[in-house]
Amino acid sequence: MKLATFKGGVHPDDGKRFTKDKPVQTYLPKGELVFPLSQHIGAPAKPVVQKKDTVLMGQLIAEAGGFVSANIVSSVSGTVKAIEPRVTVSGAKVDAIVIENDGNYTPIEGLGQYRDYTKMSKQEILDAVKEAGIVGLGGAGFPTHVKLMPKNPDAIDHIIVNGAECEPYLTSDYRMMIENPEQIVSGLKVMLQLFDNAKGVIAVEANKPMGIQNLQELVKNEPRIEVVPLKTKYPQGAERNLIYAVTGRKINSTKLPADAGCIVDNIDTVIAIHMAVCEKTPLMRRIVTVTGNGINEPKNYNVKIGTSFAELAEASGGLKEGVKKVIAGGPMMGMSIPSLDVPIVKTSSALTCLMQDDVERFEETACIRCGRCVQVCPSNIVPQKLIEAAMKYDTTAFAALGGMECCECGSCTFACPARRPLTQAFRQMRQAVMAERRKKG
Amino acid sequence: MSITAIILTALVVGAVGIIVGFLLVTAGEKFKVEVDEKEVAIRAELPGNNCGGCGFPGCDGLAAAIAKGEAPANGCPVGGAPVAAKISALLGEEASDVKRMVAFVRCSGDCDTALDKCNYVGIKDCRAAAVVPGRGAKQCVKGCKGFGSCVTACKFDAIHVVNGIAVVDSTKCVGCGKCAATCPNGLIVMIPEDAQYVVQCNSQDKGKAVKEACSAGCIGCTLCTKQCEFGAITMNGNVAVIDQEKCQACGKCAEKCPSKIIRRRENKQE
Q1: Looking at the structure, do residues A249 and A298 belong to the same domain, yes or no?
Q2: CA closest to A432 among chain B residues
Q3: What would the CATH number be for the domain defined by B101-268?
Q4: Domain ranges of chain B
Q5: pLDDT digits (tens, 9 = 90+) for B172-212
Q6: Alpha carbon of A434: minimum distance to chain B alpha carbons (Å)
Q7: pTM for the predicted model, two decimal places
C-alpha cells in the first residue's frame, strides 16, 4: 500500500529505540513548581493568586490575558511562594508563579467528576476546553479553544489527530497510543461533536505499527473516524505537511489550517480535551520523554507541569559523565538548554541528552550547489538562495524568495554536506522580516 | 579615393550633428527639471557620507527634506554644529545649538569579567546569536555578544571589538547611530560627546544574578544615586542611569561604585 506523505523531508536516525518500550511512569515532584505566565502563543496569562495564598490541585492560578491566550492551573496543592521572573527553556526570564508543593495533592472540588459529553452543548464543550487551559501540546502551544472556534465551523471537514511524532527520539505520543488509545478516540469524538460536517482522521507514522493496530481496532465501528498510516519521514508531523498528506490540500504561511477545512491537534492535546470535558480535569500534566545516550535510564514520564527538568533527570539516574548537549524537546526542533534548572511547561515534550559522538561538529565549508537543501525542503523554497540574502541581511530579498514559507524544520541544515547554518540564518531573517512588518503596521 | 565622397560624408555627418544638437537643446529646455537652488546649496554643505544616520535616504534625501522644511537645519548628526550653522545661514534662520553625539556601549563584560554559560557554535553574528535560546554564550543575556554586528554596520571604522566587547572610538564616531540600530540587545546608546561619567552596564537582573554572571555588572545597590548631589542618577529598574544634562562630573559616583562600572570616559582623558 502506498502511504500518504509530502514532498521533501529527511530521514534522521529516529532514536526511538531508547524509550519506545518503556511504559509511562507517573512522577511526583519534590521541590517547588514553577509556572511561567507565558507558556503558549499569545498574550501572557494574568495571575489571579497572590504571594502566600494557599492553592489546591486543579485551581486556576492565572487567567487568559486576551483572546489568544490560555489559563494556567496549579498541578499541585501548596502555597504560592513568589511571583517573580524565572528562567525558562528559551533562556529568557519570564514572570512566573512559584508554588511550594505540600505533597498532599489536595484536589479542588469537583475534580475528576465524570461528564457525558454527548449531553453537553457545543458552547459547554468549548468553555470546558478554555477553562482547562489547553494549548497545543505538540510544541507550538497555540491555545486549543481558539483553534476550535474557526470563523466558519461548517466548512471544517477534517479533524486530524497528529500522531506522526516525526521528531527523532520522542516516544510520548506512541506510548499514549499503546496505553491510552480509548482516551484518544474519546477526545476525538468530543471534537467531532463540535463540527457536524467533519470526519476524524488519526494520522500515525508507519513506524508505530502497534499504535496503528490499537487505534484501528477501536475505531472499527466508528463511521466518522479513520486511521491513516503515514510514511515515516521528518517533518511529517508539521501541520502543513500533515494536511497535504491526509487531504491533498496545500496551504501557505498566510493561511490557517481552518482555511483548508482542517483542524489539527496533537495526540496528547486530544487526550487533554478528553480529560477536560469528560473527566473535568484541567491541563495539569504532560507526557515527557527523557532520552538519549547521555542519560543513565531513558524513560517516559507523566509529569506535573511546573516540575523542574533537573528533578526528572535525577529520577532517570542522572546525566552521564561527559554529556555534551541537553535539549528541551527533540534534536531537530528542540532548544538546547545551558542549565537543567528550568521548569517543564505545557509545550515541553522531551529532554534529550546527547554525548560528544551525537553532536560532533564538522567545519563549515563553502556551498557546493548540490541542491540537496532544495530536494528536502518541505516548503518548496530554495534554501541556497535564501542564505545568500540572509548573509547580506537583505530582508526584502529574503521575503521575495519565499523565506516566510520556511517552517524552520531544520531539514536543509540536516542535509547540507557543507554544514552551513541554514536554519539559524532563516530564523533570524524571519524574525527580522516580521519585526519590519509590525513596524509598518 | 574621390574628393567628392569625403566632402559628402563630412556634410552628412555635419548636418546630422547640427540637427541632433538642435533637438537636444529644445528637449533640454522643454523637459528641464526645476531644481531648488536652496536644496543644491544645502546638499553642498552636507558631509556626503550617505550614512543614513539622519533617517533619510542619503544626503540628497536630507537636503531635499531640509529645503522643504520637513527636517530641521541640524538634521545631520554627522556634520554637527558647523554644518548646522551653515545650513541655518542658508535658510536665513538663527543657528540652533547642536550637541555632537557619540555612540556608547553600555557593557563592560569582556572576556575577563563576564562568564559563559555554554558553548555557542552557531553563526558568528550578534543578530543570529540573539534568536538562539539563551541568546549566545554569555551568562548575561543583556551583555555584548562580541561578534561585532556593530563593527560591520559602522562605515567610519569607529567601533571595534576589543577583548570580547564592542568599544567606540569617540574621535572617529560621527554619531550616525547605525550601530545602535544594529545591536540586537539595544546596548548602544547615543550620548553627548562631552559626557564625562557613564554607567557601563545594562543588566536588569538582580544583584545576586548579576554577580554570578559577571564581575563588572551593575548590582543595583543604588549607592551612586545617594552619592549624587545633583540628582543626576536615577534607577531604571535594576540599573543606574546618569542624566548627562544634570551631571556635573564630580566623580563621586564612580568612586563609590562597588563594581566599578561607573567610569570616566577614556576618550575624554586628554
Answers
A1: no
A2: B127
A3: 3.30.70.20
A4: 37-91, 101-268
A5: 888 888 899 999 999 999 998 888 899 999 988 888 889 88
A6: 13
A7: 0.86
